[in-house]
Recover the amino acids of this structure.
């Protein structure tokens, strides 16, 4: 039920008010800050943004994050200054689309630039050689298939495709990563999806890419367009349904991530695009996330008192030797089939232009 203006004004009397400049000038700094904050909250209630997936205004406000706090956290944890990324913003707001379950940050201008990813690429852990989603997707990439990986990073998945005799192509905006791929003999381009030919690939993959895109529906439409009828679209993102992401994590927030996906959200895509969801797979708890999971369940989990009693070393031992496979991890992977049947298609197309 919508919150009425009358009820809100009982909580914050200045909500919805505009101030005459002479009146505003006489207020103390604290009064000015309070009234401006109330105005911002009023805008959130009265003028919510449209969901970037459903294009509907039926969204629920989840939280506000001060940009000053984000800048400080990024500087302390990664040594990266994100002032340019969030220039002109005082807060970023988090919403949930009620139709699709998509969680998203607003405004879209909070998206990270190529320079941000260039700096993140300097960390060894950013482009990992071994990823759960690689092993899940490889069986679908048979020899002779033409595969495109959007956001190929350092080219680890493309190397695996090459060893299987698969014709693999990549798209990558990070110039340093692309240069490394070219040195390894991989076919990686910097052109946009809109520059590729329609129905030119058997399989399109995007691993840990969708959550970075400010306009996900437009991105997905392009992926479907370049996919041949009957082809496979394979997507992997962090899973907002996981306990690891119950509370905001710095790398799961702007300017790094803009959207959050779960199985409900992926099923909703069938109502928007000519896609059939074939499989939805969820990653078990990864070894590199053991300590983070232990800290999370000890602090916030429903059985936190039980986990606190168990010695941390014993718990880590049990998880490492098989117990982690029973626990929901961070990632989710889905496989879609593009609806329609192939007709009159003659041979593969090179990704060098749009028909």
């Amino acid at each position: 039920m919508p919150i009425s203006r009358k009820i809100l004004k009982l909580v914050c009397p200045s909500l919805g008010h505009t101030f005459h400049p002479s009146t505003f000038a006489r207020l103390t700094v604290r009064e000015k800050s309070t009234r401006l904050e109330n105005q911002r909250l009023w805008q959130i209630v009265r003028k919510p943004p449209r969901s970037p997936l459903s294009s509907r205004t039926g969204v629920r406000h989840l939280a506000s994050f001060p940009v000053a706090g984000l800048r400080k956290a990024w500087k302390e944890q990664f040594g990266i200054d994100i002032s340019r990324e969030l220039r002109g913003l005082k807060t970023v707001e988090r919403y949930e689309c009620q139709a699709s379950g998509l969680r998203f940050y607003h405004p879209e201008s909070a998206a990270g630039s190529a320079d941000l990813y260039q700096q993140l690429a300097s960390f060894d852990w950013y482009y990992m050689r071994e990823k759960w989603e690689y092993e899940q997707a490889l069986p679908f990439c048979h020899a002779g298939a033409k595969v495109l990986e959007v956001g190929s990073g350092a080219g680890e998945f493309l190397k695996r495709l090459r060893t299987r005799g698969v014709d693999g192509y990549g798209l990558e905006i990070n110039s340093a990563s692309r240069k490394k791929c070219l040195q390894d003999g991989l076919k990686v381009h910097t052109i946009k999806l809109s520059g590729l030919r329609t129905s030119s690939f058997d399989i399109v993959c995007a691993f840990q890419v969708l959550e970075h895109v400010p306009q996900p529906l437009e991105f997905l439409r392009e992926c479907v367009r370049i996919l041949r009828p009957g082809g496979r679209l394979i997507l992997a993102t962090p899973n907002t349904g996981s306990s690891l992401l119950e509370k905001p994590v710095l790398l799961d927030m702007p300017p790094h991530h803009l959207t959050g996906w779960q199985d409900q959200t992926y099923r909703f895509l069938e109502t928007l695009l000519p896609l059939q969801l074939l499989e939805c797979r969820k990653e078990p708890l990864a070894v590199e996330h053991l300590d983070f999971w232990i800290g999370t369940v000890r602090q916030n989990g429903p059985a936190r008192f039980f986990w606190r009693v168990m010695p941390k070393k014993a718990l880590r031992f049990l998880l490492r030797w098989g117990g982690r496979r029973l626990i929901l991890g961070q990632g989710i992977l889905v496989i879609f089939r593009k609806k329609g049947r192939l007709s009159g298609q003659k041979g593969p197309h090179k990704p060098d232009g749009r028909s």
User: Anything to note?
Assistant: The radius of gyration is 23 Å. Confidence is low (pLDDT under 50) at residues 1-22, 343-355. The chain has 13 helices and eleven strands.
